Amino acid sequence: MDGTVLIADDDRTIRTVLTQALTRAGCRVHATASLTTLLRWVEEGKGDLVISDVMMPDGNGLETLPKIKVLRPGLPVIIISAQNTIMTAIQATEADAWDYLPKPFDLPDLLARVEKGLTSARRGRRISPPQTGSEGVVQAGQDLPLVGRTPSMQALYRLVAQVMNTALPVLIIGESGTGKSLIAGALHEFSDRSAQPFLVVSAQDLTMDPAGGGDGRALLTQARGGSLVIDGLGDLDSDAQARLVRLLDAAPEDGPRIIAIADETLTRTFESGNFRHDLYFRISGVTLTVPPLRERLDDIPLLTQHFLARTTRETGSGRHMSDAALEVIRRYNWPGNVRQLEHMVQRLMITGHDPEIAATEVEAVLGAASTGAAPTHGNDGGTLAESVARHVRRYFELHGDELPPSGVYQRIMREVEAPLLDIALEYSGGNQLRCAELLGINRNTLRKKTNELDISVTRRRKLM
After folding, report:
1. Among candidates 78, 168, 89, 171, which has minimal Cα distance to 129?
2. In 215-295, at which residue ranges do the beta strands (DSSP E only) sit?
3. Which residues 6+ apart lie within 8 Å of 446 measured at CB?
């Protein structure tokens, strides 16, 4: 790898790790904790690629992007962020970032992106960056609970940002309570159609003969050049499906964008022959699959904190979640997904009096099923291998017709390895030697792995 990389991050550890890794890879590196210094280097002509954090002491990396583009139009910029909403994916796309990654990031993955970016700079043309998801950054006034750092949510964020301003019809699939309507709202609100109507119609609206003609043209007139959302697509009977086909046929080129929302049973309905194939293929120009909460357990602390903070603003209650309570929340299956988690947090904030929310309070709200419950593998249980297979398949499906970027093996292994080491350390009482013996690996290997995966070794669970 050949080239000069400019790094802007206020975390000294990240600057050191990136500097060492890129230097070993053959790059020359300039690192700073200041966006002002970064802009000066860019203006002086230094650097073939930039890696910049978002939240910096003297500014915002995303807001600095347009200035970099003016100074050096062809300079690739990789944005990295520790924030966790959908907004960074959208803002980075709008600001024309070459690529963006969440923190904590996979170092080999970042190095591969840097190499591709340097190749792009040398050839003097833009090469499409790897297609994976990203973190978001919370902006003032935004309160979308589209929060997540897990790979499935990252891929979803990136895909939303990519298709936001296209005219392709979008099908959003997911279980009840996962946030499908929020995704539909984000697609409209942050697109270039945001000033146009956002019209949501239900299965009942399409079942009845719409005013203005049986083909639904009145709905197209109301939605104009905005977004027409069909909520409950899988609930349409055969007559309503036929009307929707005619509605899509009648849509003008400058008409509304069609967004359909359906639960996870739509695919089975389609495969059983109870849903029109021509309608399915017309409505699913892009399919966005929103994962259930039980498949993104690492996002639960982030979502919980989001709901705690929001309820605090709304009610003035300043309670916080104990570690034990959070552990109970992580063990629960969450059949109602994010909406159920939100309602639970609101109830705990309103009904409790102590500053700290105890595990017993959470157990009381969730019911006896949450007490001592083990992590589940999905609705139908199954072996660990079957659970992993479902996760891997969902990861591939989130990329649609495109294959995921290279490095799938490392990413999947990291997802399995991190909880294995974390739980083994917990049950070993934080004793690294005992944990290494339990796992059958060398203690130095364990120490190296925990450092790479940023796993705390200060676990104090008592051994039985």
Report:
1. 78
2. 227-231, 257-262, 286-290
3. 421, 432, 435, 436, 439
120 membership: H or E segment, kind and range? helix 107-123
Rounded to two decimals, the pTM is 0.56
Q: Distance (Å, rounded) from C-alpha 433 to C-alpha 442?
A: 9
Q: Which residue has the tokens 């997540």?
A: 148
Report CA 64 to chain centroid distance, whole Å.
23
E strand or H helix that includes residue 71 = helix 61-71
Half-sphere exposure of 111 (CA within 13 A, CB side): 17
Task: Kindly report, residue by residue over 119-170, the tens digit of the pLDDT.
Answer: 877 765 443 343 333 333 222 233 445 677 787 887 888 888 888 888 899 9
Cis ω on the peptide bond leading into residue 129 (within 30° of 0)? no
User: Would you say 102 and 57 are in contact if contact means Cβ atoms under 8 Å apart?
Assistant: no
Closest CA to 145 of 189, 179, 195: 179
DSSP output for 279-332: HHHHH-SEEEEEPPGGG-GGGHHHHHHHHHHHHHHHH----EE-HHHHHHHHHS
Pick from 433, 427, 436, 426: nearest CA to 458:
426
CA distance 39 to 64: 8
Each residue of 207-217: b (16+ CB within 10 Å) or e?
eeebeeeebbb
Q: CA 426 to CA 435: how far, in whole Å? A: 9
| Residue type at position 286 | V
Contact assessment for residue 59 and residue 67, using Cβ atoms and an 8 Å cutoff: no
How confident is the model over 2-25, as a mean pLDDT? Answer: 89
pLDDT in tens, 246-284: 888 888 888 899 999 998 888 888 888 889 999 999 898
Give me the torsion for CA of 63, 65, 68, 74, rounded to 10°: -170
Could you tell me if 30 and 41 are in contact, meaning their C-beta atoms sit under 8 angstroms apart?
Answer: yes
Q: What are phi and psi of 91, to 5 degrees?
A: -70, -40
The yes-or-no verdict on residue 458 having pLDDT over 60 is: no
CA distance to 126, 201, 369, per residue, from 120 (Å): 6, 45, 54
The yes-or-no verdict on residue 372 having pLDDT over 50 is no
Structural element, H or E, at residue 113:
helix 107-123
**For residue 386, what are its two tokens?**
């079957």
The single-letter DSSP state of residue 399 is: T
* Two structure tokens written together for 409: 């093996």
Average pLDDT over residues 29-37: 90
Q: Counting Cβ atoms within 10 Å, is residue 119 exposed (0-12), middle (13-18) or buried (19+)?
A: middle
Q: Which two tokens stand for residue 92?
A: 């980075």
